[in-house]
Structure formats: C-alpha cells, structure tokens
Amino acid sequence: MSSSSNTPISLYGEVLFDCFNHADKQEQVLGGAPFNICWHLQALGDNPVFISRVGNDKLGEKIIQQACDWGIATDNIQVDESNPTGQVDVTFEGDEPHYDIKVNSAYDFIQQSDIQLPNAQGILYHGSLALRSDYAKVQFQTLVDSGDWSIFLDVNLRAPWWDKTHLISWIKQAKWVKLNIDELRELGFKQPNIEEAIQAFQLQYGNEHVIVTQGADGVTVLTKHGFFSETPDKIEQFIDAVGAGDAFTAVYIHGLVQNWPIQKTLATAQGLASKIIGIRGATPNHKSFYQSLI
Predict the structure, then answer these.
(1) CA angle 81, 87, 90 (to 5 degrees)
(2) Residue 142 lies in a domain
(3) Residue 81: inside a domain
(4) Residue 91's pLDDT is what?
(5) Nearest to 181 by CA among 148, 137, 221
(6) Other CB atoms closer than 10 Å to residue 253's CB: what's the count?
(7) Is 291 a domain residue?
(8) How far apart (Å, rounded) are the C-alpha atoms in residues 124 and 151?
(9) Is the pLDDT of residue 251 over 90?
C-alpha cells in the first residue's frame, strides 16, 4: 500500500515492552504509543520515521529486529550503553489497564545530535511520557526549533510523569491535540457539556484540531469547520484496551496526510481501534489485519 501524499511523518518517543502478568505466565508485548502508531502507519504505507532509543540489551535487540521485519527504518532507533530498554508492568483492575512505568529507560535519553533526518519537516508526533526528564525536554525542544514542523501532540497524563507548565507549552506549539475526556477535565475544562469544554480549550490554546476520545462514547473533534463525532459500533470481541487509542491516532494522522474528509477519518480510525481491542496488546502481527480498512 503506497501513500499518495509526500508529507513526511516523524514519531518521537518511547518504545518499550508491556509486561502482562497473568496468573500462569508473564507475557511481553512490544509497545509504547509512538512505536505503536509508527507500526500502524508503516502498515498503511506511510513510511514514517521513528525516533527513539533502546538499551544495549536483549529487549533492545528484539525491538530493532521486529521493527526491521515490519519494514520500519531503524536508523533513528539509538542504542544506549548505560540505560536499559523501557519496560512497563501492566496489571488490570476490571477491564482497565494500570501501568507501572520504569524510570531511567533508554528512551528518556534520546540525543538530538544523533538524529538523522534528510529534512526536518512535515508532521512530528509526540506524547508527554518520553519528555518526563529535564534532559529529554531540552533535546526535544532543540529538534522542534531546528525544523519546520506541524506538531501532533498526544496528551498522556500518566502520574507522576507530567507537569502542567511544560504540558501547556507543548499544547500551544501543537497544530493538532488529542486527549481523552478525563485529561480534558484534569486540565481544568470542567464544563458539563463536552462541546463547551472543547471549545474553551481551543479558545485558550488555538489548536487547529482538538480531538477528545470518550471510550465507548466515541470521539468528538473540533476543527475550524465545527464539531464532528463518531460513535464506535458494538465491540464483537474484547481482549484488552491496550493500544486502542494509538490505533485511532495512527489512522487520524494517515487521514491528515491523505486529505481525507474528517468523517471518513473518524469512522476508519474507530474501526481500527475496535479491531485492536480484539487482540492482546497494541500491534497486530500481519499486514492483512489492515486490509478491510483501506
């Protein structure tokens, strides 16, 4: 599948292993929002650039190998000699995943000077987790300032890994912002009517698109053409919700570079998210998984 658009997409941030502890066994699944999104975009034919860092260890080797096998370029996956590949322990309370994110992981130390880009432009995706250290904040901002980027910010309020001052500066420099309803509320937009809350957010920060996901209630987006929303079909098979939001984001970015009408983007994005809920973890193993969506 080849993309008709020439807009380059770069994704900056964490790649890690989600470690699921089941009663009978431990399962390690490749993850990290920027990597999951990159995985989907590669399957959709967008040839994204993935900027991250792994440890010089078994898990790091495994990540580079799996990226390679999927067709993802690995020249911007840096190898760190002193910090380990990222890991997250995932436990469940009911159906909701809870994350224990290990500190001082390789992805906290992405070095701007080692990033190789033919031209620093196009869409730059990032979340807030990989910018949790002071070092990372400086390195990332250097990358932003050295290029001509349209930024897609994925707000991930994972306590205690965020602070409001930095988050607001990232929101202000982003063209598109995606967050969930709880995050919108936590940032102080508590209007009972969700459209009023989103409007207040856009008024304050000036983003071109504000994308608010609401779990089973679907998604509401505000653009300069007004509000759009999409409610997912009934889920046929539920395994876990890990990575459903990343699948949604990947299709949203794909829709941006393809100039899809927003309603088509939302329907397709919800479609992929609903399929991801039917598998363990965030990334399917076969490109045929995406066939029905394209």
Answers:
(1) 175
(2) yes
(3) yes
(4) 84
(5) 221
(6) 26
(7) no
(8) 5
(9) yes
